[in-house]
């Protein structure tokens, strides 16, 4: 007797009524036959993790460059941490974990080398061509730039993953208007915020840009510290710091789950259609959100605008600017694939595409070779 559940049966057993199911998917741009034991969203997740752009995230700046040491997060480790947090939330809310993981693994894949400094430089150089945005670039990568399959360009991801990423690149006003994104999309955005708040603080403390006394200025940090110290006594400073970071994440995730479940019940949400017709449902208590915003503002002024980081940004921006100008003047030195893009969309966009695929290391080596 065969007792094996089909992927569709498994979703019906496990998922809440408001979760996105594979059989509800709008499919792919280029139709493909169904897989015998993987859902469309499982295949999306796997395609993303196997693509070249995902692997390159290991050599791309999150906040701190490789010159700062090897403790801090890269784009890849940040992405994996976001996926981990998002999966936890998805399971608690009985959402589609495969879709959530695909969205989380994709969310930062469009970042160029040198983090937001590189993005700002490319946006400036491409101002006359529509600009550059890492969220939109992620779509270009998975729809055109990646070339892994013989039957279609890009990765041919599901419409749900593509539309979820597209909403990330939309204006704040557009995001607030119906139809709302799927709950799976909303929780990835929330997980991203929870992850970078805690982990950027951790990295800044490790690098000596902040001290524990500095962090004690924040109510959110003080609250987490009190919880940790009520559970443990005489922790070493490093143990204490890491325990506080864990508490920040755990507290944020717990409050998010609790508040979201309450909103789902208050709005009597029982379908994907109701999710899309309702206000944003994934949220935190207002007071906690305010304390979290204070922490983000603190990190912006004390870490992201730290003189050491600004100097690194200036150097990285200058190097990437030299590369951009060089390839615009020497378009014939671009790989053949990008010369094709230049013929169809113009040389500046092709150069932007090419440079966005570079890692910090490969961009720096190319600069030094000039």
Provide the domain count.
Answer: 1
The name CATH uses for the topology is Hypothetical protein af1432
Radius of gyration: 22 Å
Q: Any idea what the shape is?
A: globular
| Succession of helices and strands | HHHHHHHHHHHHHHHHHHH
Described by strand count, sense and barrel closure, the largest sheet is: none
| Helix percentage range | 55-70%
Features:
Deoxyguanosinetriphosphate triphosphohydrolase-like protein, globular, about 375 residues, Hypothetical protein af1432, hydrolase, 19 helices, mainly alpha
Structure in words:
This is Deoxyguanosinetriphosphate triphosphohydrolase-like protein. GO terms for molecular function: dGTPase activity. One of its GO terms (biological process) is dGTP catabolic process. InterPro entries: dGTPase (IPR006261), dGTPase-like (IPR050135), dNTPase_2 (IPR023023), HD/PDEase_dom (IPR003607), HD_domain (IPR006674), HDIG_dom (IPR006675), PHydrolase_assoc_dom (IPR026875). Keywords: Hydrolase. The chain is mainly α and 370 residues long. The protein has a single domain, classed as Hypothetical protein af1432. The chain has 19 helices and no strands. It has helices at 7-14, 40-50, 52-56, 75-93, 97-106, 115-125, 134-145, 159-168, 172-176, 183-206, 212-215, 219-231, 237-266, 272-277, 286-304, 307-329, 336-345, 347-356, 360-369. Helix 6 (115-125) crosses helix 16. The longest helix is centred in the C-terminal third of the chain and has 30 residues, at 237-266. The protein is globular, with a radius of gyration of 22 Å. The termini are far apart.
